[in-house]
Amino acid sequence: MDPYRRLKHSVKRMLSGRELKGLLRSTGAHFNESPFVRERPERLEDLRVACILDDFTFHQMQQELELVPVDLENWFEPFKESVDMFLVESFWRGSGGSWAGIAYDYNPKEREILRKIVRWCRDAGIPTVFWNKEDPVHFDEFVNLAVEFDHIFTTDAGCVEKYKALGKGAEVLMFAAQPSIHNPVEIYPERKDRACFAGSWIPLYPERTADFERIADAISDYGLDIFDRNLDRGDPRYAYPEKFKSMIKGTLKGEEILQAYKGYRFGLNMNSVKNSETMLARRVFELMACNTPVLSNDSLALHTLFGEMAICSDDPKAVRKGLDILRSDAAAYRRFRQRAMREVMLHHTLPDRVDQIASALGLPARKKFRKVICLIGDGDEMLNVRSDLKAQTHRDLETIQVGSDIEAVWKRATEENALVVRLFSKDHHGPNFLLDLAIALFYSEAEMITKLCHYHRTELINDGRQFRWTSEVLGNALMVDPEKVSWNEARDLWNGSTNTTARKCLSIDEFNFVLDGASGAQYNGVDI
Predict the structure, then answer these.
(1) Which residues have CB under 8 Å from 373's CB, separation 6+?
(2) Are strands 513-515 and 428-429 parallel, antiparallel or unpaired?
(3) What distance in Å separates the CA atoms of residue 265 and residue 238, rounded to the nearest whole number?
(4) What is the assigned CATH class of domain 192-348?
(5) Domain map of the chain by residue range?
(6) CATH code 3.30.390.10 for 372-515
(7) What pTM, to 2 d.p., does this model score?
(8) Tens-digit pLDDT profile for residues 407-448
């Protein structure tokens, strides 16, 4: 531990001890009361979760759960109504700062009130969950608090055995992207042809700072902008060296981070932990979800989870080579980021992590991607489309002939929360055609998804229209939400009688589809 930080928190302990003793006296009577406990909901969305989280985690997770922050001075307030879980992370400030400095192991007296709340919840039958997002670096600071909880989650697979050695079960819960925030939908007319780094200069990790210097030097002539998280801190120990100060463009807070994630063609990442199979910087997931290729120093987790979907090396020449390859080949650049974005949306989103936490309470996971009903013609058209359907990676699908009672099909699709697409036998549908359309309706608020940018045989049409809102529609590559779009409206778009809509329509990538491409040709650069 940094001696300065230890001294600072030691002083805080002396200054706050009397206040906290008074707080225990003034609120202690509540420990003799019983919180209101209801029968546990069957659906995750109905959970009411009392929590102590840092602001960043709270704002992202509140979109998945009903979170009620526990304030230090009025800690008992959330428990006056039904609470289904008490969730605490390895916080530094907690609940807007009211718990600042209390969770660390070197503040044991102040932490006693938190221990008492955990034990009180356990006695009342309220499940308690602790997520140490600071493992493995800060394992020692938080472990004695973590073991008080019923369920422990850690960002580092290597710490699971450490918890087991203390008689506590633990499982890995990695960082993730919040798809409603971190997604590929473009917000600027075009991205800057530069790299950005939204992060801090941290002398506490000399290997990280050395990696940053080498890689930043290697790509600086291409262009690197820095958004310094500690810019407003005013602490010279966390100031970037003089040679990087001209690159600093400011600091970003909250969702301002999208200026970096969606404003640049490349994102630079620095890992402080390099030898963990599961712990890597949160920004990796967020950059990839925003369709931004990641340049990074070495990381076992990055290699393990994403393989060649990131440019990852301690060798600055290797990073620069990967950067130059993607800059010189626009199609390769788009394929590279498409694979990474899809991987994050499949496996590394906040809904995935919240489902994992809920499973500790015995709740079933939510259905992530919706069922797809494929409308196809009869006879030869059905035969011609069959091979494309067999190859689809999205397996929750159903095929129905267009001649069926479509009104009834539409009604059933709405009841089943299914999506509907029309497939035409003259077109080529790659393995991820249905999956990528369904994923787009997962991360966006669109009512329909199309591929305005697409291949017509070998020609790329409408390049630059990827991941943008549009009023134009390509009926041959169009998936709709039947709860929001009527059959008559969808039919007109599919049969080409109109190609414009007032609906909220998102045009996504050009891959896995070729208009008039059902020729049996191989589309290796398209089917990714």
Answers:
(1) 397, 398, 399, 400, 409, 413, 418, 419, 420, 421
(2) antiparallel
(3) 27
(4) alpha beta
(5) 3-172, 192-348, 372-515
(6) no
(7) 0.93
(8) 999 999 999 999 999 999 999 999 999 999 999 999 999 999
